[in-house]
Every structure is written in structure tokens, then in C-alpha cells.
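Async update (no meeting this week)

Hi team, since we skipped the sync, here's where things stand on the single-chain job. The sequence we agreed to prioritize is pasted below, unchanged from the tracker. I ran it this morning and attached the output directly underneath so nobody has to dig for it. Comments welcome in thread, and please keep replies under the output.
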Amino acid sequence: MLTVMLSILGLIIGAAVAEEEGLVIGLFVGLAFGMISSLKGRVFELEQVLAKVKKQTLAKTPKQELESKPDIPPEQTESKHVITPKPMNEAYKTQAETAGYVEFIEALTHNEPAKAASVEPTRHTVTATKATAVVPDFGEKLFFKVKNFFTTGNVVVKVGAIVLFFGVAFLLKYAAERSLFPIELRLLIVVAFGIAMLVIGWCLRDERLEYGLILQGAGVGLLYLTVFAASKFYHVLPVAITFAVMLLLVALSGWLAVKQDAKSLAIFGIVGGFLAPVLMSTGGGSHIALFSYYALLNMGILGIAWFKSWRFLNLIGFVFTFIISAAWGYQAYQPENFASTEFFLILFFFFFLAISILFAFKEAPKSKFYVDGTIVFGLPIIAFALQSQLVKPFEYGDAITAVALAVIYLLLAWRLWLPEKKGVRLLAESFLALGITFASLAVPLLLDGRWTAAIWSLEGAALVWIGLRQSHLVSRGFGLLLSIGAGLAFISENHHLVDSVPILNSAFIGMILVSFSALLIAYLYDKYHQNCYQFERELPIATIMVIWGLFWWFVAGMIEIERYVASDYEVKGFILFFSLTTFVQVLLSRLLLWRTITLSFMLFTPMMVLLLISTFIDKRYIGPFEYLGYLVWPTALFIHLLVLKRKQLIWSKTTLGLWHATGLLMLAFIITWVVYDSLSALSMVWKASATAFVLIAIAEIVMRRGKSIAWPINQFKRGYYTWGLLPIMLFLLIWQLFAISSAATTGLIGYIPVLNPLDIAQALVIAVFAGWLWFINKSKETQIIIMPNVFIYGVAAVMSFIWLNTVIARSVHSFAQVPYGIYELMGSTIFQSVTSIVWSVIAMILMSIASKKSTRIFWIVGAGLLALVVLKLFFIDLAGSGTISRIISFLVVGVLMLVIGYLSPLPPKKQINEERIKL
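Output:
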């Protein structure tokens, strides 16, 4: 039936447009559309059947375990929940009711009762599962409505009314072109015909309502068309009378539709009214007349909306009004038409805004889908697009339009948000979202990127707050996008930073507001995370927003310091800024119980280390306490400890220990630098010795007094004793190597062996290093590797032996005037003789102690040293046997060896095990 109707319709339209050729073309086009529509309908029917079969199949008991047992009767295998599928026609109806398309499915089942009834009911044991309805898309909905129109009810009358409508329009056009009758007579005939149809339809409303409504709709459409043509094209009716008559027709059609609850009548009347000027158009005429006529039609729709919630009628008016208006604007609008066009655009906007509100109030008690999204969201978008073309010549036209729309929608949202309007809360939320959207859009249209960023960021935070408080996902998502967009908008303008006022400038304030809103969003997500969906809780949204907010905070502070702080104070400004920021974060984390804000704590200490190193490298700084450093660095170290105290229960002990060790090293570095800087007037010997003295003192304080300091040293022993002192000890060992290369001449009192500051410092380094090895080796908590005591003694002995030879070398250099160099000293007979004698004395002391203590190992070490002396005498000292120093060395060493052999014999082997135990 649909195919036949579309073929006839195509034939009529084709003949009207292009006579004989158009008749054939129109016939085939109509036929093609009819076949396509029929095939699409059939495909949809098959899809519905397939979906129903799938649901029944999937609902069966897994693996059909009960049916697979042959020895159990089928009756005993059935579950308590046994579902007998309905016949196919009933299944269609149930599914259609679930999806909201009852009319179409009823028509479908009406057409094929035999097929549906032929389906045999089959009993299956299934799990009681609720089937999910397949909801058609927009194209399918439109197809259903068209097919419903042409396949249900009195199809012949409907098509006949349409054909008659086109026929009358073409008749009027034909008569006008050929002047067959006086225009007044022609118009009166059509008016009489339309009134006759209207009266007949009204009289048949009780007997044959559907037929009567179609006639009434066609009659109203004809009257619309005739009155419009009489005024615009034939000028037989004054404009005032025309508008009055049309107003009466609008009221009449609306009254008839509401009175008889006839949506089809209203649709026929409205469609006819909108098509009249299109069909009768000659390309000329006044746009004011056209828009005034459409305003009257929309007034009728508004009147009907006051009584009935007919969504399709509202959509027809919305689509016709703005499509035809946009088409006219594209083809004929001129700037001189602005005032009149603007008036009608605003009027149409308020018409459909009121219609969307009335529809929501009518539908809210009956359905949860009471917001007509097409009009609610489509209206401002289309209106703004058209308005932007009208105000293009004005500088801030778009911005003013956006502000006006924002004000309108925010006021409506506020009014609908009142407690007595609780039933339309979704509409209020929709208006709120639109208001915020247009307010956000107005900002970049009116201001530069920096202020846009600031305002968008605040709006984003507000939207997230609303979305979290009301569990509204869309608001939260839009707020997050605004916050990110705020930063991007600011980046697009960052090359315009030309403000000359520190802090109170748009650049700094903009970045601070972006930062503040991002941090506020992070806090809100932490606080109201229970209001989020599961997938949101799994995403690190709060963490990302904290990072985003802190990024803008630090960028803002660093740019401001770089621009307005003197270069000598720049680094100290950075240190103070980071320190105070971290202090504020500590306070916020405690007051607000906000853990996410402490993410940057991990970066604070490394940042301080980098700034300390940069200060040390910078040649402008002689010491760390210059340029307010005496205030900045103690503050930074205090906050460093405060951060570690705050994170004590959150970070791992290893991490805390490493960060405590880093703080100790920073303190040692700063104190050492200060002392070194204070001795700048003295020689390098004094400054180098002072450096070692400071580090030795720090190490001794930590090892000796650490036990009495419960927090932090005693609580993080490995952090302080091991990782904190290890770099200090390594530095002291490197310092020891460099110190050996120095002659230790003080420049004041010359060189005094052993009592020289460098000799003393070296000796103390040996003592503190050996003491540190022994200290950390006592406990597993501080051990690096397990070291036997003999190893520690051996390290100390080797270092002491090197130190003693260094003292000898410096003494020979100072008193014998031998240049202090390895080749010069090795070639000095005095140095060789003194070292031979000293080594022999050391060997004698070791072997004497070994004999008295019966310690065989000491004796062996002494004997080995003595053997080294002998080798040295014959291979090195013998080269200078003619000199008095070499002679003395041979004599003294020989006598000492005789004494050693007599007084210190080798201890027996039985003492070895006891020696190992003692060591």
C-alpha cells in the first residue's frame, strides 16, 4: 500500500513540475521510494524477530544440564521459573510497548495475524531475565511514523486530502497565470470549498471521527493558503484584515484540535499553513509579511501547547520556522533588513522557548522523558548561528548575543530550581548547562585569552562542584573540559605578557585562577568520590588535576619572580616560593584531610638540591647566606623536616630515610660552604682543613648524639648513619687524596709536623672514617656489607701509614728544602733514610706488642714491614750508600732489627684462634 501511495504522489508532483516528462519520472521516483521503504520495514521486522529468538536462546539453562538426563522425567527438571513465550504477534507488542512504539507494532501485527499465530508456543526452562528492548534510531522512528500514516486508519482519505491540497494550489497557480476568472471569484470559490470541508468534517466528528478530522485539517489548510495568496499575491485583502483572518484561522484550528483531542488536525492545519507561502511563492514579496504570518502560526502552536503536549506538532513548527527563515536569510537578507529580521528572530526564539517549557510541565507527571532535547538544545544553537550572521558587522555582536542567552537561561534555571518546581529539575539542569555554556562562550568573544582562561577555570570548578553534589556526570565532564581548556586558552596568549605591575596583573591572576580552580576540582573529587561512577573512581582524576593546578601555580610564581625580582635575589626567591608553597600544602593537607595535595612533596627536596647546586655554580654567589640566604635556607630545611614528619605514615621507610639523608647532606653542604666562605682571607690549607673539620664534626654529632635524638635520627638510623654519612665519608676520602698532594704550608707559622691543621684534619679523617665503619657494622639496620673487625683495623692502619709518610714528606720538604713532589722526594736521601728508620720503628712497636700480647698477626705484619724496609735499603737506599743519610739509615735499621729479634720473638701458633676471636 505504501509503495502505491508514494508512486501516485510522485506521479502527481512530477506532472505538476514537468508535465509529461515529469509524470514518468515522478512515477518511478515514487515507486523507488516506496520499494525502499517497504524493504527497510521488512528488514526491521526480521531484525526484531531475530532479536527475540536470540533472547530466548540465551535465556536457556547453561548446557541444558537438566534436559540431558534421560532417566529423569522432564517435569522434574523444570525450574520454578518457567516462561512460556508468547505468540510472535504478542511478542512484537510487548517489545514495542517497552520501546515506546505501540502504534507501529500493532499495525504490523494487524497486517500479519496468520504468520504470528502460526508460531507454536514452546516450553523452555530459562533463567528469569529481563529482556532489553531494542530502541530504533531517529531514521527508523521517522520511517515508522510515515508508514503508520500511510498504512493505518483511512489511508485513502489521507492521501486524497494531500492530493487535493496540491491540486488546489496548482489550480490557483494555473488560473492566476492565465486569468481565467476574476481573482476575487477564484478566491471565493476556494474559500467556500475550504469552509465546506471544515463544516462537513465538524458534522462528522461524532459518527466518523477520523474522516471528519482529516476533512477539517484539509479545510483549515486551504483557508490558510487562500487568505495568504489573496493578500500577498493578488492584493485583494489589506494586510491588517489578512492578519486578522489568519489569527482567527490559527485560533480556530487550535481550538478544533484541542476540543477534539485531535493531534492530526493540528498537524494538518499547521503543515498547511507553513506550506502555503512556499507553494505560492513567486520569489518576491516582503519578508516582514512572511515572518508575521509564521509568527501567527507559531502563536497557534504555543496556544495548543498550553493545553496539549504534542511534541510532533512542536517539532513541525520548529523545523518549518527556522529552515524557511534560514533559507530566506541565505538568499535574500540584506544589512538594511537587520531591525525587522532581528525582531522576528527574537520572537521565534521566545515562542519555542516557551513551548519547550510548557511541554516539560505537561509531560513531567507522566514520563521521565519530559525534556524535548531537540528543541531545548537545538533552539539556542540555531538561534545563535542565525544571530551571528545578523550581527556580523558589529564588533561585539557575538559576545553580546552569548551574554544575553546566558542571562536568559541562567534566570530560567534559577526560577525552575525552586522547590515547588522540583518536578522539572532535569529541565532546570539543562537550562543551567546552556547558561553556563553561553557564559563561557561569551568570555573568549569579549576578552583576551588570559581572562578567558580565568573565567573558564572558575566556571569549570563550579560545574564540577554541582556535578559532584548532584551526581551529574555531564556537569562534571564539562567542568573538567573547561578547566583544561582554560589552561590551553592562557597558553595561546602567553606571548602578550606586557604588564608592569607585579602580582596585580592579568597574567599572574589568570594563571593563579587556573591553578586554583584545578586544585579545587581535585579536592572536590577527593571529598565527593562516593558520588562518582565506578569508572571515575578508577581514573586518577584528582591526581591529574593536582598536577595541572600545581603546574600553573609554579609557572605563575617563577614567571613573576623572573620578571620582577632582581637577578641577584632570583634563586633565593625561587627557594622561598617553593618553601612557602610546600608549607601551605602541609597546612591544607592537615586542615582539609587532603592527601592528594601532598603529591608535590616528593619533588620539594630534589628541587632544593638543584637550587643549592645552581647557587653554588653561579659565580655571583660567594656563600649561600648572601642575598637573604640566611633566612631562605633555614626556612627551606625546616619545611623539609616538616614535610617528612607529615609524610611519615604514608611514604615507605626507605623513601623517608633517603629524603632525611638528603636533608642532612644539604645541611652539611651549606654549613661547610659558609665556613669555607668565612675563611676566604686565609690560605688554602686553612680553608681545606676547615672543610674537613666541619664534616668530621657533623659526622661525630650524628653518630654520638643521634641516639639521644628520637626523631628523626634515631628513628631513621639507616637514613642518617648509612645513606646520610656515606657521601660525607666518600667526600672525605677524596679530600684525603687531594690533601696528600699539599705541602701544608700555612703561610703564617710555616709547617709544624703533626700539629699542622692539615695533618690534624687528615688524622681526624682517618679516625672518623674507621669509627664510621665500626659504627654502621654493629647493627644489621645500618650495615652496607658485613665487615670483620680485622678489615676495619686494616683500613685504619693503611690510612695511618699513608698519613705518617705524608707527614714525613712534608717535614723533609719544610726542613730540608726538598721540593714537594713525588719524583723529588723519591730521589731525596734524607726522605729515604727517615722513612726507613720510621718504618723500622713501627715494625719494632708492632712486633713488641705482638710478643707481649701473644698476637701472632701483629708480629707478622711488623715482620712484613721490616722485610719491606730491608728491600728498600738494598734496592733504593743502597744507591746513595756514600751519603751520610744512607749510612745512618743502614746503621739504625740494623740495630733496630737486632733489638726486635731479641725482644720480640714470634708468638706460638696456638694463639691464632684466640687472636681471631679477639679481633
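Quick observations from my side:
The radius of gyration is 49 Å.
Residues 2-58 form the longest helix (57 residues).
Reply here if anything looks off.
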